[in-house]
Design goal:
The protein is mainly alpha-helical. It is built from six helices and no strands. The chain is elongated and about 45 Å long.
Length: 128
């Protein structure tokens, strides 16, 4: 999503590296979802602990994002979305070893997540 918003900060990419596979291949919270939360913070978050309005607005946007994601994927967890327990080293290697599974994640999860996220941003910008 960094490309979509022309964010070129290598520190952000570096800090988000562990999001993949549901936080370090643990099958937990989807990295594409968490990436959306990160981008919402970059776009709308506060720059000081005293900025309560920005904090509350960002919380609102993140809760909307959560509801959008859940309504589509029925879960925020990679293991549920992909249908594989990524915590199991053998299952994970077998799963990611198949091109169709990598494409499923890239196109059907990450791609669809990006589309939904852009729709949310458009909605936020229109109302804002």
């Amino acid at each position: 999503m960094m490309e979509l918003f022309n964010i070129r900060n290598k520190g952000i990419l570096k800090s988000a590296t562990g999001f993949g596979g549901g936080i370090g291949n643990m099958g937990s919270t989807c990295g594409a979802f968490v990436g959306g939360v990160l981008i919402l913070g970059i776009l709308y978050g506060r720059t000081s602990l005293k900025h309560f309005k920005e904090k509350e607005e960002t919380y609102l946007y993140c809760s909307k994002w959560y509801k959008v994601f859940i309504s589509h994927f029925k879960s925020c967890n990679c293991c549920d979305i992909l249908g594989v327990d990524l915590r199991d080293n053998n299952l994970r290697k077998k799963y990611w070893g198949e091109k169709a599974n990598r494409e499923k994640c890239a196109k059907l999860v990450v791609g669809e997540t990006a589309r939904m996220f852009l729709e949310l941003i458009r909605e936020i910008e229109e109302v804002g």
